[in-house]
């Protein structure tokens, strides 16, 4: 118990909120489940293999989970963390999930594969917030794909806004069926040496389906950041929008924002907007006049812009 408490305190020291360990929750360090708090209406299964861990989360039909389900994924030493996650939200159920990912050390690989299904009339809201040690050496390779069934809704947020992001590869692929909605948002601040790649693919297959893919990428210093947004309007009267905005600071920065829209139905409509800009100079000077140095002022602006 003392060893587990020490591990949990080490995780929290990276800035995670303390309620991450409260009901309902599961904490995974590397490939080991170190803490689990069950919750009525949620079936959770784990399987530890030689090279990875598999987690299956199923919410029974007609269940409203009042408290957010917390999943803490951490790797506090060199090596790989491979996680396969399956999420199944039963018909007319509603749940919010918050994944806190804590990483500390060098030569870390975090590879996750998520497959989800939001069934008829159900709602799933997922937030993945990363907490990294300063000057971390990490590869994040996260892919998520799933289906939102009739009248269902799916909303996701992926966020890294402090210290180095590392080498990041994020990809979402979502099928949206009749009267269903999907909202995907990515917020990442890259710093010296970081390399960020984000790709969102939305298939509006159902009639009156709706989707929005939004990215907010900040490239500070010697950073490379790319966003690719693809939305396909197939369903009758489907509606989609791609919104990508990137902020650059420094001379050795490469940013790219590419929205792609494809429509093969005369009643469908898909729009896009892309913008690349810089940090507001007046705002930076105002913060520095209050006693912050330039790096501290930039950090305040970054956190404010990424929310």
From TrEMBL:
SUPFAM superfamilies: Stabilizer of iron transporter SufD (SSF101960). One of its GO terms (biological process) is iron-sulfur cluster assembly. It comes from the Bacteria. Residues 85-304 form the SUF system FeS cluster assembly SufBD core domain. This is SufBD protein.
């Amino acid at each position: 118990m003392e060893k587990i408490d020490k591990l949990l305190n080490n995780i929290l020291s990276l800035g995670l909120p303390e309620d991450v360990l409260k009901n309902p929750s599961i904490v995974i360090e590397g490939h080991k489940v170190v803490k689990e708090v069950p919750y009525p209406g949620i079936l959770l299964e784990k399987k530890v293999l030689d090279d990875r861990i598999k987690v299956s989360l199923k919410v029974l039909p007609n269940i409203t989970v009042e408290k957010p389900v917390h999943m803490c994924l951490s790797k506090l030493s060199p090596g790989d963390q491979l996680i396969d996650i399956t999420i199944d939200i039963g018909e007319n159920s509603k749940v919010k999930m918050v994944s806190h990912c804590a990483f500390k050390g060098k030569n870390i690989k975090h590879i996750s594969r998520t497959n989800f299904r939001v069934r008829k009339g159900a709602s799933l809201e997922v937030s993945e917030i990363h907490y990294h040690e300063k000057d971390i050496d990490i590869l994040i390779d996260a892919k998520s794909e799933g289906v939102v069934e009739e009248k269902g809704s799916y909303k996701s947020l992926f966020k890294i806004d402090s210290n180095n992001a590392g080498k990041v590869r994020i990809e979402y692929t979502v099928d949206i069926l009749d009267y269903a909605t999907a909202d995907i948002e990515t917020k990442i601040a890259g710093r010296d040496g970081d390399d960020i790649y984000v790709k969102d693919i939305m298939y509006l297959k159902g009639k009156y389906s709706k989707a929005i893919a939004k990215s907010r990428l900040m490239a500070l210093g010697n950073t490379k950041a790319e966003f690719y947004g693809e939305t396909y309007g197939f369903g009758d009267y489907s509606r989609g929008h791609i919104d990508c905005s990137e902020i650059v600071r420094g001379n050795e920065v490469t940013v790219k924002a590419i929205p792609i829209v494809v429509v093969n139905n005369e009643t469908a409509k898909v729009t896009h907007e892309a913008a690349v800009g810089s940090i507001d100079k007046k705002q930076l000077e105002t913060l520095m006049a209050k006693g912050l140095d330039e790096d501290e002022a930039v950090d305040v602006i970054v956190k404010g812009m990424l929310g």
